[in-house]
Design goal:
By secondary structure, the chain is of the alpha/beta class. The chain has a single domain (6-255), classed as Ribonuclease Z/Hydroxyacylglutathione hydrolase-like (Metallo-beta-lactamase, Chain A), CATH 3.60.15.10. Helices cover 24% and strands 26% of the residues. It has seven helices and 13 strands. The chain has helices spanning 62-69, 80-87, 124-131, 147-152, 176-182, 199-209, 228-240; strands at residues 6-11, 14-19, 22-26, 48-50, 72-76, 94-97, 102-104, 108-115, 154-161, 166-170, 189-193, 213-217, 253-255. The strands form two sheets. A seven-stranded mixed beta sheet has the order 6-5-4-3-2-1-13, covered by helices on one side. A six-stranded mixed beta sheet has the order 7-8-9-10-11-12. Helix 5 (176-182) runs parallel beside helix 6 (199-209) and helix 6 (199-209) packs across helix 7 (228-240).
């Protein structure tokens, strides 16, 4: 594996990132998104997994990946024990992250930025009960217990490779504290959530972050990437954001 950085958007908030001999996954939820072209068992190597938050649509494939590859898993400190218990994994591989903490893992450094999820509009018990409405939840026993934590704690990450290449993986609620805290970060690539966020709001945050390239994600969970509604949403973002924007198809590799 070369020192060139390769990124492919899988689906939803899940990316595979390769560089400096490392493979990093973000928010592995694959089968429950509209795109079905990537299977969790197909990864040959996974060294690190960064988890933004514990909602089902960000972690459903994590047990398969943990069991096969035993990667280092980075997650918020509040929910780390919940996640470890759900996975029933060796806790050595779980790294509870605190705001602005950076871990030097050799070929990569992982820094966490604290954020909040958009207003979930439900109480803690209502969030857990909502999971019972999804038929597929029977495939993931105990996952309902993590759902409310997903609304309280959300992490974004700056991934810095030993060759200096920086990737921001961001999701959550666009608020003034995010604009202020991330202003001038200037990563080479910013992977930024574009679901409930409007194009104008995302543009304001992206312009503050000032990435070399902006790549949106989380716009195909319920509506396929190829659907006219999704394409229209992306068209509006292209017209609003004046920086370099790449909107890859599911599974498409990009090299930097």
């Amino acid at each position: 594996m070369s020192d060139r950085i390769r990124i492919r958007w899988l689906t939803n908030a899940s990316f595979e990132i390769q560089g400096c001999g490392q493979v990093i996954l973000t928010d592995p939820c694959l089968h429950q998104s509209t795109y079905k072209g990537i299977d969790a068992s197909s990864f040959e190597k996974v060294d690190h997994v960064v988890v933004s938050h514990l909602h089902w649509d960000h972690i459903t494939e994590l047990p398969i990946i943990e069991n096969k590859h035993h990667p280092f898993i980075y997650t918020g400190a509040l929910g780390a024990d919940l996640l470890a218990s759900w996975l029933d994994c060796n806790t050595t591989f779980i790294f509870p992250m605190f705001p602005d903490q950076e871990l030097d893992m050799g070929p990569v450094k992982i820094k966490m930025f604290y954020n909040r999820h958009a207003n979930v509009g439900k109480t803690k018990s209502q969030q857990a009960a909502k999971c019972e409405e999804y038929d597929f939840m029977k495939l993931y026993p105990g996952l309902d217990k993590l759902q409310s934590m997903g609304g309280m704690e959300m992490c974004s990450y700056l991934i810095t490779f030993e060759n200096g290449f920086k990737i921001l993986f961001w999701g959550g609620n666009i608020a003034q504290n995010q604009i202020s805290h991330l202003r001038g970060l200037k990563p080479d690539v910013a992977l930024m959530q574009y679901s409930k966020q409007g194009a104008v709001a995302l543009t304001e945050l992206a312009e503050a972050v000032d990435p070399g390239v902006l790549i949106p994600h989380h716009h195909d969970l319920k509506i396929p990437f190829t659907d006219e509604r999704t394409q229209e949403k992306l068209r509006v973002l292209k017209e609003t954001y004046r920086g370099k924007l790449i909107c890859p198809e599911n599974g498409q590799w990009l090299e930097f």
